[in-house]
Structures are given as C-alpha cells and as structure tokens.
Design goal:
Order of helices and strands: HHHEHEHEEHEHHHEHHE
Largest sheet: 7 strands, mixed
Strand order of the largest sheet: 3-2-1-4-5-7-6
CATH class: Alpha Beta
CATH architecture: 3-Layer(aba) Sandwich
CATH topology: Rossmann fold
C-alpha cells in the first residue's frame, strides 16, 4: 500500500496534467483521471451551468456534487474552497457572497492555482484569491471563514482527520461547511482499490461513510446533516479495465459501494 506521501505526490502529478486539459477531455475519463473509458461521460460530476457565477473556463468537470448550491452562503461572507482547482466553486460562491464578501481558494497543485488566478484576472474579481497550500495545514488564520466548501477533494486526501481539524480551526464560531465527497459503504475489489488510475481519480483515499461521519462528529462539529446522497454506478467499460467478467458480475450483484454525499455541519458558537 502506498504511503501518504506517495499518494499525495501521485495525485499532485495527475492533477497537474489535468490542469492542462479541457473539460471535454476530462469528461471522457473517470473523474478526470485520464483514459479509463472509451465513452464520453464523467461518472461523478454534476452540471454547474444553471448556477449563478458559473464560469466555463473554470469548469474542469472534476466534482462529484454541487456543494456551493447547499452551502447557505450569505452576502458579505468569507468563503474558503478546499481543493479549488481552476476556480469553479469559488466563482459560484462569489456570486452568493457578493462584492463585499471574500473568497479564498486553496489548492496544492501549482498548475491549478495558476489557472485559477488567470481566470480570476479575466473576470476582474478583486475579492477572490487563490493560495498554494495543503488542506491538511491550511495557509489561513484561525476563525476567519463563515463557510467552507469542497467538491470531491477529501476523498483524495489520506489524513481526513487532519483536514477536519483544520476546517474546525479556520471556521468562525457558528460557521459551517458543505462538502461533497466520495465515500464507500463496503469493501471495493482489491484490483480497483489498488489501481493507480482510481487513486488519482475517483476513489483515491475514500473511506467508509460511517467512518467519514465519525471524523466530523469527533472533531466537534454539530448539526451534521447529509444534504445529498447518491449512488455512483461505474460503467462496464471502466470496470473491464480492472476486473474479469466474473468479478464484474459479482461486484454489480452487491449494493452500490461507491457513493457521493454532500455533508453539512456547524462549528458551535462560543457561549
């Protein structure tokens, strides 16, 4: 099994390449990971086109939900997007928080940050910024964010407990997060679990749903709500890259193991 450092380096290298691809190229792969399907679809992402603030240049088709839609962002809020990519969710959040608000995107891939900064300059936004950094150790002061969002990123991070601790630190008392992510409800076949393409795409370090929610609860968050929960059905032409016909039949006979959830939780107010 790869170490945390190896997994993070593999993800960084893969997403550095993805930053140079267009959405159509990413859509013909699993979660933008590249070349794992002969058909043009992305099994995780949802359409952003109907949301205010959407910017086509910032949409790489890498998400697994619409967290900013559920994030309850108010005008003037400070919003932080974890794993901000080319800036897609940041620009949607900016439409909600307005000119008096502030949006900070954090990503550990330099090519993604560069692309996001370029998109921001094109849009002329002065209250949106992007920072290079690891979300396990955010380059942000404590108690600054009203809202934190993230879209299909924590499943790529080996140390989720550290990320939730950082989210708690950075949120203001009474602040909240809305995060879309990939979780599991059973054991994946070893061939899928260990495949490098899947590590750098859909289920990199995805964990059991109950364990994921337990981390949130143990960190101290309250009012935890699953805002959306949907099954992710992996098409046969992707499964054939990893499993035999018999293994595919066995895999599909089980309850869907890979799921996309959007989770909301609040940092308690200080008494």
């Amino acid at each position: 099994m790869e170490s945390e450092k190896q997994i993070k380096e593999m993800v960084k290298q893969k997403y550095s390449l993805i930053a140079l691809q267009d959405k159509e190229t990413n859509a013909s792969s699993c979660c933008g990971s590249g070349g794992c399907s002969t058909k043009v679809y992305n099994i995780m992402s949802e359409g952003y086109g109907h949301l205010k603030g959407y910017n086509k240049d910032a949409d790489l088709g890498l998400g697994c939900g619409l967290p900013t839609r559920f994030a309850k962002i108010n005008p003037g809020d400070t919003v932080i997007d974890l794993g901000s990519g080319a800036g897609n969710d940041c620009f949607v959040a900016r439409a909600e928080t307005g000119e008096k608000g502030r949006v900070i995107g954090i990503d550990f891939t330099p090519a993604m940050v560069e692309k996001a900064v370029t998109n921001t300059r094109k849009l002329g936004y002065e209250n949106v910024e992007f920072r290079l950094g690891d979300i396990e150790n955010m380059p942000v002061e404590s108690d600054v964010a009203d809202v934190i969002v993230s879209n299909c990123v924590l499943n790529l991070v080996p140390n989720k407990r550290a990320v939730f601790s950082e989210i708690y630190r950075v949120l203001k008392p009474g602040g909240h997060f809305s995060i879309s992510d990939i979780v599991l409800t059973g054991e994946l076949p070893d061939k899928i679990k260990s495949a490098a393409e899947m590590y750098a795409g859909c289920v990199a370090s995805a964990i059991n749903k109950d364990e994921y929610l337990k981390f949130i609860y143990q960190t101290g968050f309250k009012n935890i709500v699953i805002q959306k929960d949907k099954a992710i059905v992996v098409p046969d032409d992707i499964l054939k890259n990893y499993l035999t016909d018999g293994e595919i039949e066995e895999y599909k006979s089980r309850e869907t193991i890979i799921r996309s959830i959007t989770v909301y939780a609040e940092k308690p107010r200080m008494d």
